[in-house]
Amino acid sequence: MYFFASDYDGTLYQDSQVSQKDLRLIKEFRAQGHHFGIATGRHLNSILGELDKYQIEVDFTIGNNGSAILDHNRKELYLAAIDKAMVREAFDYVVKHMSDEFYFIAINNGYHYGQKTFYQELESFDAGDRISLEDAFNSETICAMFGQILPGKDSLLISNQLNEAFKGKLQACPNGSFVDIVLPNDNKARAIQRVVSSLDSRVKKVFTIGDSYNDIEMIQMYDGFVIAGGEDHLRGLSDKRVATVGEALELVMSGVL
To answer: Most buried residue, 7, 64, 83, 126, by most Cβ within 10 Å?
Structure first.
């Protein structure tokens, strides 16, 4: 059995859609007895809405860059828990030192988020899963934080600043126009390990595919494909460059890899 984990935005979801060809090949891949799933920076309610919208059949869902994992029945396999004092410390740090870098900073319980907005006139992001900031802070579990950076700002530099400030405590990672903040050992590669270890079936090989910084670990750790039109820095990580997820699945099913 093969195991295939795909990033969503910019990878499976391109040009504001998921192609019918990719959907057909996902079904074909799974019909052959292989496992296919999503590994995204989105929180769970956001990505589950996308799966339902496009009727994407998956065997697992990894959200929040590995901080939240659901099995094929959407039952929790893992939900990270960041110490709430650490969440407050990181939140206060951004408010005090980085408010001119972010449009907003958000607290995420795995499914919903509450945000503090710094620039109201830029109101554009709303995944439809927003709760009050107070409710987010009072959630039983807080598994991640994230923020949308302002136009012209550098998500890598911002992530590096946060990583220096919270070294060994939290890990910030660029994710397009966002910065995601999770526990140091939570990433997509680690989440894939968790899913594979939960399976009774024997996994012959693990394949991954992505297009940005938060995909680096899973591309390096496993047989990774990179989206040819993705971030420049990713192209040097693998010689397996494809235009779409479907193209990668065709190569895997053909047995040439």
So the answer is: 64
Domain annotation for the chain: domains and CATH numbers: 2-79+186-254 (3.40.50.1000), 84-182 (3.30.1240.10)
pLDDT per residue, tens digit, the chain (257 aa), is 999 999 999 999 999 999 999 999 999 999 999 999 999 999 999 999 999 999 999 999 999 999 999 999 999 999 999 999 999 999 999 999 999 999 999 999 999 999 999 987 766 666 678 999 999 999 999 999 999 999 999 999 999 999 999 999 999 999 889 999 999 999 999 999 999 999 877 899 999 999 999 999 999 999 999 999 877 777 778 889 999 999 999 999 998 77
* Residue type (1 letter), 236: G
Say what angle helices 20-31 and 245-254 make with each other, to 10 degrees. Answer: 30
How does DSSP classify residue 236?
A: G
Q: Do the beta carbons of residue 5 and residue 218 sit within 8 Å?
A: yes
Cα–Cα distance, 79 to 93 (Å, whole number): 24
- The sign of the torsion formed by the CA atoms of 222, 223, 226, 227 equals negative
What residues have CB less than 8 Å from 202, skipping those under 6 apart? Answer: 1
CA 123/CA 104 separation, integer angstroms: 9
Residue 123 backbone dihedrals phi, psi, to 5 degrees: -55, 110
